[in-house]
Structure formats: C-alpha cells, structure tokens
## 1
Amino acid sequence: MKPDVLVPGIHRVYARIGSRDLFEGIWPIEHGVLLNSYVVQGSKATAFIDLVKDWEGAVGEVESQLESLGLNFSDIDYLVLNHMEPDHTGSLGALCKKNPNMKILCTKKAVPLVEAFYDVRDNVQAVASGESIDLGGKTLVFEETPNIHWPETMMTYVPEDGILFSCDAFGSFGQYDHCFDDELTEAEWELLIPETERYYANIVSSFSQFVTRGIQKLADLEIKMVAPSHGIVWRKEPFRVINHYSRLAEYMNGPAEPEITFVWSSMYGNTAALVPIIKEAIEEEGVKVHLHEVPKEHASHVLASAWRSSGLVIGMPTYEYRMFPPMYHILDVLDRSHVNNRKVMRFGSFGWSGGAQKQFDPIVQALKWDCLGVVEYQGAPSNEDKKKAIEVAKALAASVKEWK
C-alpha cells in the first residue's frame, strides 16, 4: 500500500484490519476497519498524528509507507495523540524507544494516561483549545472535544489547508480501496453509509450530547477536509459526514427515523408464533421494519437499527421468572447507549409463571419509552392474543409515522 496525498506536505499512512477480531473486544467488523495516521511536514518540523497498534501487522505497514516518503519514526518531531484508546496509541512505547527526543502533544487529561498505559513520562506536553504549534508553513491548532468518546479527546486542525484531524469522530467501520469521498465506487458508498451508522451507534452513541457540543465548537473553522482515524477522508463534501453525525446525535432522544426495530427471541416457538403477524401488521401501515432474532444476531446490528428507529418491538419469553437472558443483554446495550424516548410494544410467552414484564418495566421507565401495549400469554398465543397483537402493532406504526 502507498500513502495518500491529502495536500502537499500532508499524507495519510494507514493499515487495513480484517474481520478476525472484534473491535474494542465487543463489536464485529465483518468488513474490516481502517487505522489511519497522518504525517504533516512543515519547513521546520514534522508531526505524526495518531498512531496504530500492532494489529495484523499495522505498525510495519505504516513504517513501510513512511519509508516511501523518505521518513522513519526517528524523523518525527511531534507526535499528536488526539485520543488515548490503544488502537490509536498501541505502538507508543516502542516508538518512544526509537525516538526518545520526540515531543508528545495531548490534552491535560491524557498526560496521566500516557504514563499509565505506556510508562512514558518524558517529553509529554499538554495542549489546550486554541493553542498551536508552528511546523513552518503548516500550523497545528488544537481543539479539546471531551467525551468524543473519552474524556481526554481532542481534534487537530491545519488552518493553511482547512484539514480537520478528528480521530474517532466522523469515522466508520469497513475497508475502502479509495481514500477520498469523491473517489468511492457505488459499492463502497453502499457499504460506507450503514457502516458509518453502525460505527456511530456502537462506539459513539452513548456520548451524543458531547458530539453535538463538539460540532458546535467547530463551527468557526473553515473545514475543507475531514480526516478521521477510521474510514475515508472527506474532501469533496466534508460537511456531509459532519451533518450526518449531527443528525445521528439527535436520534438519542427521538424522534429518529419513522422505522421500527423488531427484535425477538423464542425458546420453543410460542413467542416466535406472533413474529410474522406483528411484522405484517406494521408493514401494512407502510412502516419499514428491521427484524433481528437474538441471540443469533449480534447486538451490534440490533443497536445500529434501534438507534435510527423511532419505534421498537420487543418479543421475548419469560425465563425462570425473569427476562430471557439474551434479550436482557440487548436491553442492557440499549440502556448503556441511551436509546431514549422510543415508541415501544412488547409481547411474549411464559410457561408456569410470568415475570419478564416486571423486569422490563424499569427499563421502559429509565429510558423514557412510551409503551403502547403488552401482549403476554401462557403457552401458545390464542386468537384473542393475535388480535390484540395486531391492534397494538398498528397503533405503534401509526404513532411512529405521526411522531415529528
């Protein structure tokens, strides 16, 4: 692989990570992910923005690309750490041994993390919003953007070229053969948009209020290019991804899109018996349904659908007086991600005793969900149960369509 030229003097050096591992140890990356670092060369100094960890040969790949630019790690004067998560800092300890004189620039909150994670204390300099470093014809200006998505995060801006290095913000899952938005094929676009939304839902959604604040802080910058640490570089329409993130942040408290995420589990088919009936009733009202069966489908995809949907259908049986465990996990993920203010219905079977609803009710209250109805029954659903399920499903669909 070869480095990509963003503008003269600024390059992307990167690594392609496959689908073998889980991102953050949790999220599947069926289409892989990109680890992007950036080299900014001025007349007086050279800066390296965000590292990679030694993941599937990423460090060696980045070193090789640096060498093609006539550089190696010992030539770096400044290392900018926008974010301390190990996928962006994992090779820091080894790099400091190769280049002990390099200055490390990060926020004040990141300084103790540099020591805690990598036992590095020397040449670590805290920077704050508005401070800058002159590289000679290229200036690095720093803007703290806390909790996107760790408390110590910041972004780095080069005003001469209007390039914003945003680290995890404005990123996405997936590998792309092309670096820039104006180069992508139709197939790459078809992958990029849903993988951007899944990345946001999985990685960033819990911090949506801080995304909104961070975007507001960037309002006065003349942004010509957005260069994140995962995914593509946006040079033709940088505000397309910024505005998309802004809209995704708004989904936290609803309304989101006029769609319904239908997530269900079943033990012996009695809960499953209502799935096609409810789905058909919703679709008859002209509302799009995202159907997920758990635990067969990973929570990553359920969360991505739920984040963009104004409505939820939760189907689960009672299991030993409580919620079916795989569904409890899903609801815990939705709770942690603050999937608030949704229109909801729940249905499910029980055997000798109910109990799932008692555990479900506090979640509804905590997330401020509007539950339009519950269809709970012993054993198989009766005709009355089916009729009630259709009525509640249609009411849910109508509510979602009307919610503005």
## 2
Amino acid sequence: MVQKIVAITSVWALMVAGAMAQGEPVPVGEANGRGQVPAFEGQTRATQPDNLLKTKSTVIAQGLPHLWAMEFLPDGRMLVTAKEGAMHIVAPDGTVSAPIAGVPEVDARGQGGLLDVALAYDFETSGRIFFSFAEPRSDGNGTSVASAVLVADDKGGAVLEDVNVIFRQTPSYDGDKHYGSRIVPTADGSLYVTVGERSDRPMRPQAQELASGLGKVFKIDGEGKAAADNPLLGVEGALPEIWSFGHRNAQAATLDGEGRLWVVEHGARGGDELNLPEAGLNYGWPDVAYGVEYSGQAIGQGVTADAETQQPVYYWDPVIAPSGMAYYEGNEFPELDGAFLVGGLVGKAVVVLHMDGDRVKHEERIPVGARVRDVKVGPDGAIYAVTEGGGSTIVRISQGD
C-alpha cells in the first residue's frame, strides 16, 4: 500500500545573531581530552568562514520509519533504508512506496539493522544496487554487503531480484554495536566498504590485526572479491580485501572530486576523525586516539600520536557523532563547491567542512534540530538530510534570504 506523506515547509532562522561568531570556532565547550595537543594548526576547532550560510529548510517527508540511509535514483526519487529491515522509495512530493520485497533478514538489535545503500555506477543500464546490513549468523552477526537488481513495479515502488550476499565481515561476533557501515562505489566498478570494530574491549584490538576484518576499510569489486589495487594482495596472513586499518566505526564516507575516499569515524568521548585513508596505512585505533573513554579514563596509554600511525586530517572533541557524508558539487550553494557535508547525530546539524587542499580551512554548522543520520546532495544542488528520533524525516536545505 502506498502511503502519502504531506510535505510541510518550515523556514528556520538557522544562524541566530551572535550565536556563532564569524572568524571564531563553532562554540562547542571544553574538550574531553584535557591537555591533548593537536599535531598541527587547524587539526581541530577550525574557524568559521567570514560569511556564514543562510539557509531555509523544507520537510519533504515525515512520519517515516527509523531510516539509516538515502540514495537518489536517476529520476529524482529517493531510495531509503529503514533500520528494522525495509527499503522504500520516496517521491519528491513525499509519497512513500510500500516496502520493497526481497530484503534479507537483518539483526536490528542495538546499532544493527539494514544500513547503507548505493547505486552501482552502471545503475541506469543494470539496475544494480548494493546494500549493507547486520547479518544474523549461527555464531553471532556481522556486517555483510549484498547486491541486487532493483526492478520497478506499477505502483511507484519496486522489488529486489537477483539478491546475493557478496561480502561478509569476519569474524562474526554476538554483539550489537559498531557495524559501520558505508558503501562507496567508484568509477572502475569497485566498492569501498567501511566496517566497525564491534566496540567491546575484547574485540576492538582486532582493528590492528590484518587477519581480522574488524575496524577496517575494505575495497572489493562488484562480486565481492579483493580489488586489484589493494595493498595486501599476496601478503601472508592478511585479508586481501583490506584497504586501510586501525579504524573505530566509520559511518560517514564519500569520494572527493578526484575520486579519493574520505571517511569520518566515531571517536569515544572526543576523537571523531576525518581521514583520507591511503592504501595499507594504519589509522591508530585503539592504540592512538584523541579523546577519552566513555568512563573518562585514558584510551589505552593516552597516546595521540606515534610514528607508525596516521594523524587524522581533522578531529572533533567534543564529538559531532558523524553519520552520512557528501562532497558538495552543485549550483544551489556555489560557496560550498568542494566542501564536505557530514551528518551530526549529537550535533543535530549538517557539519560543513570548507577545504583548502587536503586540510580543513573552515567549519560551520547548518542546524537541523534533530539527529542527522545521512546527508546527500540532490540533483537540484540542494542538501538533503535524513533525521531520526521517534521516526525519520527527510529535509531539503536550500539557500535562504
């Protein structure tokens, strides 16, 4: 049954006079990692730009189930995933399709469920999509990636055909946290896949182990095999699908204008990181990190830098709790050309990172008033945010007066 969601327009005064001073960092309070010193100037708390964005927000659809991800179809409709295990298609007027048949069973406990969705690069001819989910297994669960063909029906919806699980994170674990995960297709048909290290202390050291699939960025082909340019191909004892390691829980990822992968991963209390993962490199977790444990104790030995691990391009303390990420290219906000947009769960905002080469020049926030689970740039150049909290809403952010 097709459900009709009435679109409601709401214009917010997003930048209250004096609340966010130009030329100063976003006011976020005291850092949790007291005494921790950034490795270089501008690695954290970058200043806001001289001219802050003026925006207006329009609710496209509301009363949706708890969504996790959104992807634009070529015709402007939105394919969304719901955490409990359903996919829907949302039309620009807010009409929501019936659940799409063919989604496999998911483990929706805790942070699990049906997670990311992405279109294959040849989607317009193949109809193929990829999606990730917390897969229930006989020995626990884990993040898995499936491919399917999205076949339209005559009611504005679709069904999934030719569904195949092409990749499984191992080892399995009977937990309910830190699954990742984002899927980022590339022009050559390969996929970057981010996965978490499952959070619990007995498991998280495996983010440093090349024989384990926890806490990694993978690069695979469309069939789930290791990509041909992966750095660990032929290395004894290492998983060949690994692209980079030492990650905590990356729920934000996108390509930049040069086709390079960028990710933002969750820290603990402090230490959310923006990284540009390079082949075969170690990004530190859990041995090297900013911030502190949720208990307030040091993470490991309290080390924030060493010669064996890569520094984040940028970090947040306190955290934004990142989820969802997009690289801005479009006409609606010419001043954002080349910027990154990151969803903030705790921040309840779209976090805008203005770049200067591979460094953050400025940071600003577009308040949304709810936890932002995903963010995309629409075909019209507007910013679309998926929010959560007692259900989900899709919000269109455009230029304000």
